[in-house]
Structure to design on (802 residues):
């Protein structure tokens, strides 16, 4: 019996409220071997109080040693095994720019490139043209028309864009057209299985028309397509947990991930304060609230230790307003670690606290990597966090008599 | 997606060096309930320093409560799930005496037995004849000739030997011929599936000729064959991790296990000092180094607590020479525990330390069973150790965007 089958059998409904605060990239490392991490350096009276009344642990996003991107990191927290449920690159990219994928869509990432007179790639990134220039070229591509297919072309950043094909019988199994080299022509879109033949034809027609339209561009006169993917088939929060779930996020990527899990996007908050305003406003309408805080990750990615410390303190200061709403289960965790030392996501497990009336005290004094290691949840797979949330919300019945 | 598929997707190459020191049977037990284990008794300033700068944990070789042999113990450390990848008894026995199995080989363990005038087994171990006598009988068996098959017969110890059949179309699915009783005849080699029919015939012909050759032996005039097995299909270290891997071991069993994983056997060291000489010599030629230290296991098997303590201290004294080479990742662990108290392998989890620049400090003061329990890796499956090694060597890319 899989965990999801078990869940479906055991889920009960009640009036409880669960709040999941994801501080992106929360976990860190000290700058010097014997030093303190960002979280250990930050002054966090409210997180510490939460740790004292809750249960803590270190969550492993995917597997020991595996560094997740935002997609797998969030899927795990949402209770989907990130090795079982995968979001194809194209689908994630579309999600990341806020494009709402439908069930008949196939998305791919596009890169503009420069082709020479013989049609061979001379620059794989079209000289990294600025976003404004790319936006203009993308605008020209709106003229493509393919019989029976709706086509969406959306700019991302610099030379990157997303193309989405919508129509019956499409399939993500099309190979990348990027030859990963210069001096050669882009590849034709090739089906990786018979089911994807139609999609490969559609992609080929798109490229044919597009090439004609942008032939006069000085730099972005060609393109390669990568990561063809349909919308991933995730069971929804309503289906899996019986929860009416709301997502309160600022950035498109996290809104998109929440939408893939069937959450409702709430509000248009642009800051943590506004997110909490939104939370208060929709408190009566939902059972579960995913609140995404980006800046612990972005400061980590920048290698800005002191800035990350400040952002953690910002989050700490905001906590009492969330607690005042009286959630039955309040979780603070991260989708992965982003140590300033590494300036990137990492595999290190993530400090996690869950506070509820049913918590067994584990004697922690502070919310930190070091203390969480000795917490009541131990070192645990992130995909189990939602089971714990559901249990502490008393939303899971007994398994077996 | 399995862990191995994931690895293949994420592996990157760089110039980093990983050293895996396996102190065989490292974990122990106190002789008296409140006492100290062998490792806790040993004076180990270098291991303790390693624990202070690294991350520690207790590794579970197979599953809680499962005592592994050397085969599964090492497979786990090498990153192969020991429940998925099995080394058949015959293949392990051949490996253990240093026989290099080929892809067309089937190996079986043989026991000489004594047959009475009616051909029934009167002694299942041929009176445990001394090794010298057994070697002589094995020598006589070199005369066996089977059409289209190359046959290797190698002595092991006392009444035990190994037979390897080499030829096209062989298969390990042949039942044991040991009836596990006296007063009955050895069984005929029976195929367990159609694919093994030819192998069973070959084995039968081997036994027929052998019986004729050794009919005049006073004790070893018969034989039973057990554990027919082909070479296990392990993906190699090069394939799985993109690592050029060297094994520096003294004993044939561990050389054999390393070879099954595609490591290159380096040198002919006969002591730990010579092993480290070898390590230094081949440092530039490999990315990964497996260094096997036997004596923590053999002293444990002998129930020699104080001797095991000394052997741990020997290992500790050797560490600085390894550290001086500047490995990016240095791991010290064991393939299982061998408590002197039990005089045998055991299921107890194994103290493990990994030191690298990317370690999150876990505040341990000493390398011991007790302290490792509170280490940053917690209690973890041994098969995940290589993921951690690869991550800390910065040889794994990000999973998902």
């Amino acid at each position: 019996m899989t965990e999801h089958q078990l869940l479906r059998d055991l889920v009960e409904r009640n009036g409880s409220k669960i709040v999941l605060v994801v501080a992106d990239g929360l976990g860190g490392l000290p700058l010097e071997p014997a030093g303190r991490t960002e979280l250990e350096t930050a002054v966090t009276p409210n997180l510490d109080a939460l740790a004292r009344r809750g249960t803590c642990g270190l969550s492993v996003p995917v597997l020991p040693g595996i560094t997740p991107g935002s997609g797998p990191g969030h899927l795990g927290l949402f209770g989907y095994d990130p090795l079982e449920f995968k979001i194809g690159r194209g689908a994630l990219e579309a999600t990341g720019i806020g494009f709402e994928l439908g069930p008949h869509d196939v998305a791919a990432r596009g890169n503009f490139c420069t082709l020479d007179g013989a049609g061979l790639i001379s620059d794989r990134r079209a000289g990294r043209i600025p976003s404004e220039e790319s936006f203009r070229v993308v605008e020209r591509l709106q003229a493509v028309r393919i019989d029976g297919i709706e086509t969406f072309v959306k700019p991302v950043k610099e030379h990157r864009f997303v193309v989405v094909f919508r129509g019956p019988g499409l399939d993500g199994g099309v190979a990348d057209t990027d030859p990963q080299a210069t001096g050669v022509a882009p590849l034709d879109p090739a089906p990786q299985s018979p089911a994807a033949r139609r999609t490969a034809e559609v992609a080929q027609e798109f490229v044919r028309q597009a090439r004609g339209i942008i032939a006069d561009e000085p730099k972005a006169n060609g393109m390669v397509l990568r990561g063809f993917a349909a919308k991933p088939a995730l069971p929804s929060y309503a289906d899996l947990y019986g929860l009416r779930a709301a997502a309160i996020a600022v950035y498109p990527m996290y809104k998109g991930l929440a939408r893939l899990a069937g959450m409702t996007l709430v509000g248009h908050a642009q800051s943590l304060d506004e997110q909490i305003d939104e939370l208060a406003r929709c408190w009566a309408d939902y059972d579960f609230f995913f609140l995404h805080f980006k800046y612990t990750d972005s400061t980590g990615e920048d290698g800005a230790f002191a800035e990350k410390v400040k952002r953690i303190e910002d989050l700490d200061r905001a906590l009492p307003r969330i607690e005042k709403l009286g959630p039955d289960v309040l979780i603070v965790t991260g989708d992965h670690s982003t140590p300033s030392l590494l300036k990137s996501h990492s595999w290190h497990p993530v400090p996690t606290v869950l506070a509820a009336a049913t918590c067994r005290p584990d004697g922690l004094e502070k919310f930190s990597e070091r203390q969480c290691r000795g917490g009541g949840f131990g070192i645990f797979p992130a995909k189990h966090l939602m089971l714990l949330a559901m249990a502490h919300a008393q939303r899971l019945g007994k398994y077996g008599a």
About this structure: The mean pLDDT of chain B is 96.
